[in-house]
Write a structure and sequence with these properties.
By secondary structure, the protein is an alpha/beta fold. The protein contains 13 helices and 15 strands. Helix 3 links the parallel strand 4 and strand 5. Helix 8 (about 195-210) packs parallel to helix 9.
Length: about 375
Amino acid sequence: MSNAADQLGHIRPWRHIERRKSRQIHVGSVAVGGDAPISVQSMTNTPTADAAATLEQIRQLEEAGADIVRVSCPDEESTAAFRTIARESRVPLVADIHFHYRRGIEAAEAGAACLRINPGNIGSRDRVREVIQAARDHGCSMRIGVNAGSLERELLEKYGEPCPDAMVESALNHARILQDEDFHEFKISVKASDPFLTVAAYQQLAEAIDCPLHLGVTEAGPLRTGTIKSAIGLGSMLWAGIGDTIRVSLAADPVEEIKVGFDILKSLGLRHRGVNIIACPSCARQGFNVIETVGVLEERLAHITTPMSLSIIGCVVNGPGEALYTDVGFTGGGKGAGMVYLAGKMTHKQDNAGMVEHIVELVEKKAAELEAERAGALQAAE
């Protein structure tokens, strides 16, 4: 997003989000909580024992912008392969551990940056203590993962059904296990497939503890409906300042989870990566095929990671106004041509026939300029 758009948060108080103050931990090189940017995560769905396939998926996720990737470690074969995977991955990895405490120890030894555990399902207090010691010895943080679908039997008996009170009590009970061992490098999630339950549980948890919170609406569903459900649940929490790292859970290619996660954060002005395309839905006034053009541009500009904005509007009703706040803009006109805007100012006409190539060229040029400015600022700061 452009500098002008960034500054709107300072001069428009209704755009300001006051983030919850949490203590900071680290997942490898990625800071989580405190004043660190909200990180975006996904999870591999390849067999972990197939190190080559898993690494290829991690590479795709990294290319899409993933800050952290979670990898399931259900058996010894998986934790053996995890050593190779962790060594070659360029993003920190979270080892997903359930039921067997030995997998947690093996994953920590193999290079996990974080262990996702449920302390209540990996055995006795002594076994939990062994996993905590392995995490401490190898510099791992932990995530306590509470899900509405797998709450402890005694909590379900106490509350009658999964509810915010039950989920938060479970989370705090598990946190106490780590705290009693003087281990504080942990974050917590309290996920449900119901966004109402999810949001209510996180709101309650945010008041009860100062650790970082990992957000997610679990098992949200297929790409379209899961995206909508996640945007509602995560968006409302992030808007309220809750959340330090997020995962969008979709029954789709994991790369789509990263794309949706960034889109949610970009919509709230919390993270900026790549080109933010502002486009009209099109109508009979359009001077060119907006929907087709935007689809092509989204694909052609996917390689750009520099935060910037582009407006593609079909006619002059809203086009000039939207272009005021974007780095590059195109507004449809008549007679097979439209108007190009740079930094909010009308600059020249462009025929529709060559519009896509011209816009791609302008965006790439602007991205290079912004990167040069950023490099210069960093050099001057040093």
